[in-house]
Specification:
It comes from Collybiopsis luxurians FD-317 M1. It catalyses: D-fructose + ATP = D-fructose 6-phosphate + ADP + H(+); a D-hexose + ATP = a D-hexose 6-phosphate + ADP + H(+). Keywords: ATP-binding, Glycolysis, Kinase, Nucleotide-binding, Transferase. With about 425 residues, the protein is of the alpha/beta class. The protein has a domain at about 1-205 and about 335-415: Nucleotidyltransferase, domain 5 (2-Layer Sandwich). The strands form three sheets. It has a six-stranded mixed beta sheet, sandwiched between helices. The two termini are about 20 Å apart. The chain is built from 13 helices and 13 strands.
Length: about 425
Amino acid sequence: MIPTFVFGWPTGKESGDFLALDLGGTNLRVCLVTLQGEGKFEMTQTKYRLTEEQKHDEGQKLFDFCAECLKTFIDTNYTDGEGKSTLKPGETLPLGFTFSYPCVQERIDHGELIRWTKGFGALNTEGRDVAEMFRNSIAKYEIPVTMTAIINDTTGTLIASSYVNPKTKIAVIFGTGCNAAYMENVKDIEKIKSLGIDDKAQMAINCEWGAFDSFEHEHLPRTKYDVTVDETSNKPGEQAFEKLISGRYLGEILRLVICELIDEGVLFLGQDTYKLETPYVFETAFLSLMESDPTDELLMIIGIFTHFFAVETTLAERQFFRALAMLIGRRAARLSACGIAAIVSKMGYLDEGCLVGADGSLYNKYPGFAERVHEGLIDIFGDKGRNIVTHHAEDGSGVGSAIIAAMTKVRRDAGLYPNV
């Protein structure tokens, strides 16, 4: 539960040009967002591919690369027909930096990296202020920007979705990982009491809820397959909630069940099943395809097992695989509903209802996932659960980052950021 120092909701009137730089798991993305007020915006963006070497080289080199891409983007978008800069002398552009890795923040433009996730391992970065490292790179390349905010993509999703529709009170991401953000009353945030922030203010909280029930495993019911997924992961004990829900793990849960039944002599009798023995070889996308197979013979499932794993399947086996995929997908969605319900209950949103901005490959692409989340909310709250509605979220790491940069600039200009 990380305080973000993003204070309050956007007014919807934010306007102007703002840059956003999003350091993701696969790509680096630079966006120019023109906020037009009334919840409207336009965006121009360019993506730059990150190499595995860059992810594991010196951290300062990684931020130098970010700065180089940012410079290229500005040179491309802020020059006239003769190649001259259209920026006024001394003018700097406000920049929101989306850095979706767990950070401890003491203010909006500061972020100390707790640990790398998503396959990153850049050296000499953990425990350091990544905002300061990036500022050093910006200065090195003499780029005309002022980095006003460092944010998590989930926080950005919350703010961007609220900018477009003010009824949005919660943001969730269900993709390779899972996370949520919501707006908390400052008076109820114990860990920042000593900062003396106005008790009447509100601040966005990055839940990092994928880590719920980690290590102790006291609250979430786990199967033996879940325990195996955890114990064989690169971080045993950590991210307990995420390992039951996110797209990174659902295919692996199904693979473990299949392998157990192969060992018991129930499946694929007399066939060579070595291709199924590699961890994470069964992708969550396969579960989506299996659930959405419209044919009586389940031809999609035939294709998956023959093409990727070189095994033949009977109709009974295919029906079983689809039923198993539905169980795993349904459990993930219903557990996700529990997370949303916890925030709704804490903040008292049930009676008046609220929108939940949702993003991520699982939410957007997995058949029936959103419907099952809603089914779970109704089972938890009864008919009032219908008041909580998820919808496709706005681009949090681009648009949200820019809006937060705009909100921060307004607060700074008004002298509201003396300490934080």
